[in-house]
Amino acid sequence: MTGGLAQAALQELFDLAPASLPHLARWLDEPQKPAAERRVAVEALGASDSRYAAELLLARIEAMRTRKNDEAWIRAHCAWRLGQGTQDWIVPRLIRHLRYETDHETVIWIARALARFENLSGFDALFVVRTSGATPELRESANVALYELARTRGFSDPESLARAWFAADPRLASPALSPARQLEIWRVIAGFAEWQLRGVDDGRFTLARENRAAAELLAQALADSDRYVRTHAAQALERMGARGASAADALLALLDDREAGIFAAEALGGIGAKQAESALISRLEPQHSLEMRTAAARGLAALSLPSSVAALRKFTTEDAPRDLRFATTCALLRCAPAEASNAQVLFILDDYATESGETATSEPALRAWLAAHAPERIADWDRAQSAGAIARIALRAALAREALASSAK
Amino acid sequence: MNARALAGVLVLTLGAWALVAIFHEPARPHAPVAWESSAQCAECHADVSAEWQQSWHAQAWNDEEVRKLSENFSNTDCIDCHAPQPVFETGIGNRPLARSTRRAEGVDCISCHQMKDGRMAGTLDNESVACRPSAQRELTRPEACGGCHNQHGTVDQWKASRYAQPGPEFRDCIACHMPYRDPSDPTKGRIHVMHGGHDIELVRSAVSLRAERTNDAIVVEVENIGAGHNYPTDERSRASDVFWRPLAADGRAGEWRKLYRFRNPYRFEVGEPNTELPAGQKVTLSIEDESAKGSVEVALFYKLSPYYAVPDKPDPEREAKLVHSVQVSP
Q: ∠B228-B230-B236 over CA atoms, to 5°?
């Protein structure tokens, strides 16, 4: 049977015998059955395009996590078929699975299925398969997928599409979330209250990669009565970056929360909420806790606005508490790299070069300074990334010291 | 002692107390201090501080293994327990959350001791000293360790063991990991070094290894005799392997062959079973191999990080630490 007829036959099956679905799903778990029949089962479930059928396909993919050497091709097939349907609620579940998936073909199909719902978070996985896929064919098919996704969205190359995704470029479609997808997201948010971190880590990972519209649900979660829900929702927003921008007001309202305020301060920086600048500046003042003042400085560093400089300077002096002084100086390097004194750079560099450095705070600051003072060294700086977490520190510290030595200031 | 004598003693103490109260002004409460660093505690608690410096808690932020795996804590998920807010802030037994200052101090004095009201949890009440200690039994409970350590199941494992049962065998976390400085005088406090897998002597005390030749095989037994939880208790990082090798008549040793691994795999190692050895339990293994007919050495090794450089050709002597070894004659 072909085309329309096959479709009609399948439709008849679902309309007349919905109970056949779980039966078909069992075939997916029977390796002794001929592959052709099992493919038909996937096809049939996919064609049904119902919530229940999609759940069965998704569950088959997720089953990988409880089995050793699970058959990969059947997962790839399920992922491919899910990408043909209209069930957008599979997005958060597929994102979470992508964190664990090891089969490169399945990775490609999951990334494509996500993109089908305008979620481009599978892009980095495609980049990985393109450069280090298991076979030349897989590397090529990742490349094809990347270009296809870029071109169909009016971008000349995948890199610029990826940048647009992270920048929440308005040219990219951001479809509304179906109620089923919202429910799925609320389930993830509810999981933030769990004690076990596995689910929490997966949840932050998942929501940080969700579409723009998910930020509205996370914004509501910032008012939850559970401190862990508020905290982790703020962290998920921070990691969403520009896609989380719509949560700015809710994050501002969380700033004075004794428990989750410091996470809100950093998240405001992460989402790039320029309107939060004055609120963050006021949190640098001594009537706030040192934890809050430091977090506010980190938020301002992420915003990197030249207008913050005067306020930051007040706390870059030696009488400021060390943690605060460190964070404000890092922020200064990012907000106005040309204005930083050598002594200030040295202060950051000395911390960076120790085994206990606040590396994640100082590294972007030193890079910003280097880009302003010795742009010719930036390529070397970026290359050092591949040396790994420990070895790159010595390489980068040396670059910065050389630049410092040749700087007249 | 009869009731009257007892009454007399009590009357006397009360009387003496009354005199003390008359002649000594009651100590004035110390003003709250806004602690900025655990280095401040060292000024008055130098001994505790020196012990803590040797602990891995003090290394939680510097630890190179952690830095590698967390990309220098760019993965901020890892800060929660490696540079936590005080555990009393989030609540004993709850999961700790990340702090944004003094991270280099790792799991420090303030992390474990500072209460929500700024006082320091301890064994006594005294509002007149700078740290204003407050007697808190909660500090001593396994749950106080569990906010961080039960993510790897250590407290649950302990609860399932005989050490958690009330009675003569009861031993909690601090009984084993924070022994008294002077066993005859508990008021001298507890040692804060809190060693674990990095201390091979402690690891040796956790397990026994026996091997014996039967008719056609060598039977090997490994028993958890000293850990109050699984051996090794950790997810992801630790592993302990049983190897054996034939010994030639001239004493030369053959290559090490792998027999068994004790380990709780990390979340990304799909489908691998958890083979840790629960407290008090033993596993029995068997070597049935032509080359095991002569003299054989059986050895248990411990690894701080689980992987061998070349998985098919592990070199336990170089890449792991020897826990126990036994020889079996032909």
A: 135
- In the block, residue with structure tokens 């490169």: A104
Total domains, chain B? 2
Contact criterion met (CB < 8 Å) for A196 and B151:
yes
Query: Residue range B56-81: average pLDDT?
Result: 95
pLDDT of residue B26: 61
User: What distance in Å separates the CA atoms of residue B45 and residue B22, rounded to the nearest whole number?
Assistant: 31
CA A333/CA A335 separation, integer angstroms: 6
CATH of the domain at B241: 2.60.40.10
Q: How many CA atoms lie within 13 A of B320 on its CB side?
A: 26
A residues 315-374 lying closer than 8 A (beta carbon) to B: 321, 323-324, 355-360, 363
- Residue B195 within a domain: no
CA B53 to chain A, closest CA, distance in angstroms equals: 14
CA dist., res. A205 & res. A167, Å (int): 18
Residues B132 and B212 in one domain: no
Enumerate the residues of chain A whose CB falls inside 8 A of the CB of residue B86.
Answer: none
- Residue ranges, comma separated, of all CATH 1.25.40 domains in chain A are 3-119
Whether residues B100 and A66 touch (CB distance < 8 A) is answered with no
Question: Whole-angstrom Cα distance, residue B303 to residue B48?
Answer: 29
| Yes or no, beta carbons of A360 and B99 under 8 Å apart | no
pTM for the model: 0.93
How does pLDDT run across B195-214, given as a tens digit for each residue?
A: 999 999 999 999 999 999 99
Under DSSP, the state recorded for A101 is -
Whether residue A294 and residue B101 make contact (CB cut-off 8 A), yes or no, is yes
The two structure tokens encoding residue A86: 């209209």
Q: For residues A372 and A308, what is the distance between their CA atoms, to the nearest angstrom?
A: 18
The ipTM (two decimal places) reads 0.91
Average pLDDT over residues B270-288: 93
d(C-alpha A350, C-alpha A344), whole Å: 10
Among A102, A198, A321, beta carbon nearest to B36: A321
> Residue B19: inside a domain, yes or no?
no
Cis peptide before B232 (omega within 30 of 0): yes
CATH top-level class of A3-119? mainly alpha
Q: CB of A388 within 8 Å of any CB in chain B?
A: yes
Q: A324 pLDDT exceeds 60?
A: yes
Q: Which of A45-49, B13-17, B50-54 has the lowest mean pLDDT?
A: B13-17
* Most A-contacting residue of B79, B81, B82, B100 (CB-CB within 10 A), to test interface: B100
Verify whether the Cβ–Cβ distance A228 to B270 is below 8 Å: no
Q: Does residue B13 fall inside a structural domain?
A: no
Q: What is the pLDDT of residues A67-96, one digit of tens each?
A: 888 999 999 999 999 999 999 999 999 999
Nearest to A79 by CA among A61, A65, A93: A61
Burial of B283 (0-12, 13-18, 19+ CB in 10 A): middle
Q: In whole angstroms, what is the distance from residue B13 CA to residue B5 CA?
A: 13
Q: What is the largest CA-CA distance in chain B?
A: 87
Residue B121 corresponds to which amino acid? A
Asked which of B112, B133, B151 is the last residue of a domain, the reply is B151
Q: Please give the share of chain B, as a percent, with pLDDT higher than 70.
A: 92
For residue B29, what pLDDT is reported? Answer: 87
Mutation test of the interface with chain B: which of A358, A361, A390, A392, choosing the one with the most B Cβ atoms within 10 A? A358
pLDDT of residue B47: 95
**β-strands B207-213, B133-135: how paired?**
unpaired
Q: Please report whether residue B78 resides in a domain.
A: yes
The answer on B321 and B207 residing in a single domain is yes
- Same-domain pairing of B120 and B205: no
Model confidence at B19, in pLDDT bands (50, 70, 90)?
very low
State whether residue A196 sits within 8 Å of chain B by CB: yes
User: What would you report as the CA-atom Rg of chain A, rounded to the nearest whole angstrom?
Assistant: 25
Range of the domain at B133: 39-151
